[in-house]
Amino acid sequence: MSVQALTRLTPAVAAERAALTALADAPETEISGAPVYAPQAAGLALLLILASPKQPSEPRDK
Amino acid sequence: MSYPDASPQADFAAAAEALARHVLGALKGTQEPPGPGAFLAGAADTKAALAAVRVLGPDVFAPLLLTGAPFGAADRDAVTEAFRVFPPLPQDGEEVAWRDHAAATLLARHGGEPPGAAPPPVRVASRPWREGARTLARLAPLTLPGLPGPFTEPPAAHLLTACRGLARSLLRRDHTTAARLARWAALAGRGARRPLDVATALRHLELCGGSGARVALDIEIARRLLAGREGRTG
Lengths: 62, 234
Description:
The structure holds two protein chains of two kinds. Chain A is mainly alpha-helical.
């Protein structure tokens, strides 16, 4: 069978080829979407607890 | 005020999703007519539709190979035109070259031009399993029945790599890669005990894998490959 032009489209330009390759040859995602353990978060929470202001005292009645 | 997108990638991605929905419907028997010719005829953006045919590659033949859906002259012309507008390039990677070769081989069986020589075999067994799993994921369209294998060894040799990669992708929530590797795990595990319950992995992907049609198509193909198994699922 000879290659016949079904449409009048010209062959793809470089940008179109690059877009096609990016879609067809998509690699795995770079960044994992999984939840990860973050030990520094515990330190931050402790710091916030220690650095928080004192509990206000009740005003005295005179 | 909106600015036009200079890159055609968004249009091509949308068309690839639409074609994946079309092929998925053809696999389930809800798309009539099922072939890519009907998709091209109904597309508003012809070039994006042709790009979609090239993006899905051998998967546009999945309804024919898995369910015996008809593949007529209009379908053959659509794939031929996609190859004309988006011809393979010499600098394409080995995975792309093999996908193109598989699509050209299937096209030749239905009246297309004979494909060129097969690319050099892909060596997965000698690579670390993470790298091997990435290669397998990119070669997922070659899991369809009757296609030439890209490896020197049989697919069963890559069962452990596919299952390790599938588990890793599930943990990373990379559902696209997981669905692709599930196809290899389903195919390579035929006649053997799989180290991973692929059916459960597919169910998880179906529930948590998002609404992408390309992922849904990979899941459906993997499920059909699994249903044709001769062995047990471990």
